[in-house]
Amino acid sequence: MEKEIIGYTAGVYDLFHIGHLNLLKNAKGLCDRLIVGVTVDELVQYKGKNAMIPYEDRAEIVRAIKYVDAVVPQKDMDKLAMCKKLGASYMFVGDDWYDTEKWNKYEEEFAKEGIKIIYFPYTEGISSTKITEALKHVRGWVQEPTKITKLNIDEEDDNVK
Questions:
Q1: Domains in the chain and their CATH numbers?
Q2: Cβ neighbours of residue 121 closer than 8 Å, sequence gap 6 or more
Q3: What's this model's pTM, rounded to 2 decimal places?
């Protein structure tokens, strides 16, 4: 009986887009079981950002994708420890990280554990950052959107003020 090939990838998956889907689809084509780490809100904030979509919603969106076999919370940046814990043979990542000092070091560390890092082509022209910028422009946001706490409703004509 052949050993099941497990692949792992991780990301925030905020404002899910075709680039995310392409990576997951390509990754699933190279493994029997694809496990996806979805970054928890606290780690996103630690990285100096805020997710627009809460963790539970992002995890559920990723879990619903047919290429994904399981979702786990990514609570820290130690991808090697997670790969070892899951028994992953492959770590999948976008090629925007290829040949960077950080990922060259990762390649050496992962290789010592028998885990191969596979880079997939970055989907040109799309990213969560670009979507956020487009939303800010289209909606006229100058800063982070504020939460509406109260609506005044005119009972006579049902207009929201």
A1: 6-125 (3.40.50.620)
A2: 22, 94, 95
A3: 0.77
